[in-house]
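Need tokens for this chain, all 129 residues.
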Amino acid sequence: MPTKTINERLYNFSAGAYSGVLMTEKVFKKLAKINAKYSDEVRKVLSENKSQLYKSDWTLANHIVDGEIKKQISIYYVDETCRDVDSRIDLFKAPEPSYIPVVYEVSSRAEATAIAEDLILDFIEGNCE
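Here are the structure tokens for all 129 residues:
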């Protein structure tokens, strides 16, 4: 299947599980400056309010029947022996758009799905990595 790709560096900026926008590198650089300021401000607010923060973590449990996960439950928890949040605050960084090396130009979702299926077949047949 002949395919056309966009010949430009594009970055994905999504809204979680929802589709977002692809942006050019010029827009990405502008957004990166805003993200850096935002990250600094968030770390400042968190640092000023450490007594109201908890170091959180999560874990999960699976109910597996015949090798298949039938139910999965995840929980968040606070370890009462550890209230040191400094390392967590230092790690905070606003989500940034991610570089997408190949973006296909299509006329429909069906065409995009067909391209993805062709790529899977190529992988299965050992034609690509």
